[in-house]
Amino acid sequence: MTVARPLVIAIDGPAGAGKGTLARRLADYYHLNLLDTGLTYRAVAYDLMSRGRRLDDREAAMEAANNVDPGRLDRSLLSAHAVGEAASTVAVIPGVRRILVEKQRAFAERPPGAVLDGRDIGTVVCPDAGVKLYVTASAEVRARRRLAEIEAAGGSGDLAGILADIRRRDERDMGRADSPLERAADAHLLDTSEMAIETAFLAAKAIVDDVLAAGNEA
Ligand code: C5P
Fold first, then answer.
1. What are the domain boundaries of the chain?
2. For residue 215, how many other CB atoms are within 10 A of its CB?
3. How far is it, in rounded angstroms, from Cα 169 to Cα 54?
4. How do residues 30-47 score in pLDDT, each as one tens digit?
5. What integer pLDDT is reported at residue 150 of this predicted model?
6. Which of 38, 105, 112, 207 is buried most, with the most CB atoms less than 10 Å from its CB?
């Protein structure tokens, strides 16, 4: 008898493409654990910011990374835009990545399996994931969605500024030397530019169901 390995669904893509919502829907539907790996980088950035340390202080950043517990990440504390920007700066430090990747892998291996979303899940963290999705959308669409979110929360923003931020973050995430954001060769591409989240979820579910059906036949 073969023992089934925990199912891992790896979701990568740029900021604002809809990975987070998709990851949550898939984790609920398939009863899997869920880890937004961006929060682990945000936790490191938040720790440095709140201790008044520089974002390029490697030793302090690695110490902060060692203290990250993927099971205890406070989204409301870490969701601020400035923390996301700072996270993409600490995310270029290889020592920080090494520590966080190890914790993310350990999380993924726990039964019954997990959905992880981030930038390097299918390429580096879980290269053997059962299902890999690369979720993207045009920078303009992502900027418009971000503005709508800000407005829905009662705030206001300017589209050109948000678009510039998104482009800068894409450049940093795709251009860094260690684990840049890229589509794994075996990742299914989901372009959500013209898709409602429900449509994206159904498309992702169809991909996962195919993989599970193929596994059951084997
Ligand atoms: O997804 P989120 O916006 O929370 O991620 C914040 C930053 O953390 C990203 O811009 C990226 O630089 C970094 N990150 C990463 N690898 C991951 C997840 C996030 O480098 N797996």
1. 1-17+119-208, 33-111
2. 12
3. 19
4. 999 999 999 999 999 999
5. 87
6. 38
